[in-house]
Records
---
Amino acid sequence: MTVLSVAVGVGALTALAVQLVQGPAASAGSDGDRATELAAIEQLHQQDIAATLSRDPVALTDLWTDDAIRLGPGQPAEVGKQAIRESNQRLAARPGVKVLTYVPEIKDVTIWDGWAVEWGYFAGSYVESPGGEAKQIRGARLWVLRKLPDGSWKVFRGMGTPVAVVAGAATAVAGTVVHGPATSAGSDRGRDADRAAIERLKQQDVVATIARDAVAMANMWTEDAVRLGPDAPAEIGNQAIRETNERSTARPIKVLTLVPQTRDLTIWDGGAVEWRTLTASFVASAGGEPKQVRGTVLGVYKKLPDGSWKVFRAMGLPE
């Protein structure tokens, strides 16, 4: 699960209809309970729309938890609510920009007890000055949500594809990004066995990517996995991911090095989310000059009955 394997290959994939998937570790609950959770998450979506259209930096910031991390293309991570607030304020200060439309399209929501994972697309339009020509924008996003004690939901981790002023989806802002305080270990304390198993998965990723083994790369993903890249439709299901891997490994590319670095890992019962950066080198043809690549990955993992972990949702962006 690297920028090389997340972002490579487009593939012709059919988008799934919106659906609710109950996470493997969630309590059975009732249809009424799930409907209540979905309604609360939908309130967050509506707040996102209203805040983005108004370009209200306070409302945009309030979508996120205090220990949130927002990841976007071509910029450092925004770590903590304060860093996200400062980024939103810089964006809102740009004169003349007006968001005309913003339409999120959520494709899938998976709920664990107190956690939720969703992915989807968004489309929007904006002008950069009064009377200016309207510009269109479209992208994808991966969000991990956390339920608060009052029953509301906020964004805990988020990544979006290239955006300009559609800030709710993950804002790209020019200039240096101020980092907030480091994220606390949170609910992953005392989970050494799970952390070790996730580390093994990461090492399997390194071995499979350097070997360019399409089968081994696909085996790291759950059957119902979704892989998102910067310029391609989502790859939905293990079979679609496998087919993309096969097309990629058919190219005469040789991966020389791959060095992932975990920046943050939070684990809950049956699930986990990791923010990872990576550096890699490769040659496009035999005897070619080595090229360097850097990237960022937001990965959501699912724990299997045998205690192993696989990738459930992931999005990668090159730097």
---
Amino acid sequence: MPPGGVVEQRRRPLQDRSRATVSFVLEAAAQLFSESGYHAVTTNAVAERAGVSIGTLYQYFANKDDLLMALLEHHVAAAKTAISTALRDLPASDVRSVIAELVRFTLAHNTAHPDLGMLMQRYAPRSTLLQDHLSETRRLIADAILNRLQATRRSLSERELRLRAELAARVIEQLSHSVALDEPVGESTDALSAEITRMVVGYLHAPPNSPDRVE
């Protein structure tokens, strides 16, 4: 079982060659965890798939648990960076465009390695760094949605705008993980992305809530 706290690698990859080695090992681990499941995979198998010696693997990762946590942290950090880059190119006042891009990206990212989503939900509480990455990514998505809502939904209070942005970010995150783990039969990723986008945009464009009735 992965240890508590932040993963501590034995050696930081400072040179390009070292960083490439770590990248090969992480990709090999992702492939094997997906193919065989976390518990069935050994560090020897990861080293063999990555094309490195077991000694080289242990220079960067203390054991399989360290490897798993580093892989999850890398997975989330990469998503955060990619989302941040994509958002810079989207219209500042177009809610549908930003939702469509966020859904498309998160669905594709999670579908590439669906097993990592399941492992992340199970082991995230054991890594402070992983929790920080997840919180920052969720905040990045919520802030992007909020900025578009503030420019287009002036009839809503600031409190309701923030609530809708936060809930929309969580819906996108959770549905993307759920669909990646158990994709509805006969539906393409594009079709699923369009449906999730339609649902989230519909919620964001709904009229203000009335305190006197439940909608």
---
Amino acid sequence: MVKLNRIPKEMGLECDIYVKCDYLNPSGSTNDRLALAMFNSIEKSGNLKPGWTLIAPTCGSTAISLAMISTIRSYKLISVLPESTSPEINITLHALGAQTVHATPESAQKVAHRLHQEIKDSVVLDEHRNQEDSYESLVKEILKTMDGSLDMFVAQTEVASGMNPKIKDCTSVGVTPTGPVLADPLTKAHVASVTLIQIQTNDKDAFEMARKLIKDEGILCGGLSGANVWAACQMAKGLPRETKLVVLLPDSVTNYMSSFLDDDWMKKRGYVV
């Protein structure tokens, strides 16, 4: 857990903002927690055997988390990814021994199930089915650091919705990126009915904030982290000094080397460097 120093002062915020650097997990993403819960659940059910092939329609860092654990536990992995997946993610997946298949968001599930029918001893993973099990350790870590309580928690919507019932007397804020780079079309149907405060962000605000976190705070986070902190700063306006606000930083810079870390890439899109 890290307390932000410069950014809240620059924005005239009274309350302290703490960030949970969950991108420091082994594969560089908070999704390691989700991937581990998925594997533990399906192995416990008996529906997965050593050497089998897992087929996962997913996006970005979740695919890397699944590939890492697949390698450790001797499974084969086929990731069905959006066509817009960054070069960094594709390269990392191949290095981990995973196969990649690209599809549109609308066809990802159909492609995954077609592969399942074609490949013997295979199973399709649903990343939304076991999310609840992945939050227990995160809740414990945050509450331990914050002396047992907090007033506001800000994270991507699917995480905030899962954490909401687990932290008493805490306002949960769900962040949904809408930009062409950060938006995850595969999660829209799963988060639309969630009851909590929701904020939408765009790529410009997210990437500019991520650059500020790197330059001003020395935190090597990614675009989703920037989106969460931007949203937290909007929510923090007017909050009293004693408010305990925690923001989840789910991703690192490693998947963004060819995008917002590049000055020319930012300037081409009219973003502030």
---
Amino acid sequence: MSNITVIGMGLMGGSLIKALKASGENYNIYAIDTNKENIESALKDGYIDKGSCNYDNIKEYIEWADIIMICTLPSIAIDIICKYKHLIDNKKILSDFCGVKTDIFNNTKDKKYIGLHTMAGKEKGGYQNSSETLFKNSNAIIVKNDNANENDIKIIEKLAYDIGSGKVITSTAKKHDEMIAFTSQLMHIIACGIVNHDNFLASLGFEGNSLADHTRVGTIDANMWSELFLYNSEYLYEELDKYIKCLEDFQNALNNKDREKLKNLMNNSNNIKNEWIIRKNTKNNIN
């Protein structure tokens, strides 16, 4: 049985408490969220055992917990850690659900830190959009420091599987942020770029599934994603620069009416994508 204090009940924190209760495992959950309605709703529906809409009870909630899971924006998470980490002894696991890890990691070096990032989300945030199935079959990434032992890691790994993750890997904070800049943040920039294109509104009646596929995340939580982008700006800038160069390859081939170059770019894409599928299937079969 694990006692978990969840701080922040937006889309991620709300989905976390719902998935934990739906798992059927023995999790006792306390929660803190500044939105009183979120706390009242979670208590009424039985997703949490105790809740507070302010930080007056945080000492009690931290002392009670085995795991402290922070599910807020990175800036808020860092502020919480800096203000209250003196209450967290080394028997407790300090964790977070943030989409970037380096700055969190750097502020938790004196604690037993095991961060978790599930690769799942929705276009709309908030507790009202949270779901117990949000993490189903998602990849989950664990980032830990040297104060965490193998048993501690297994506890967070089990939690990830209990909420529905299909695969869990471990990473350094640096590698996590480098890869997330490409796999997640760049994809959101691309979607926004297409939606901001002059022809997007005029496209109705001319569009196929490819436009919908490429713009699924074009409806975006600007407050959250702008912060995530800036916390990871160095790596994201590098990935965006690489992508712009890929676009320029196509642009130059078109400008030069170079069909062979276009075919080479497309065939190269085919080969790389096929290799990606083979590697993905191989990893899935191993796991």
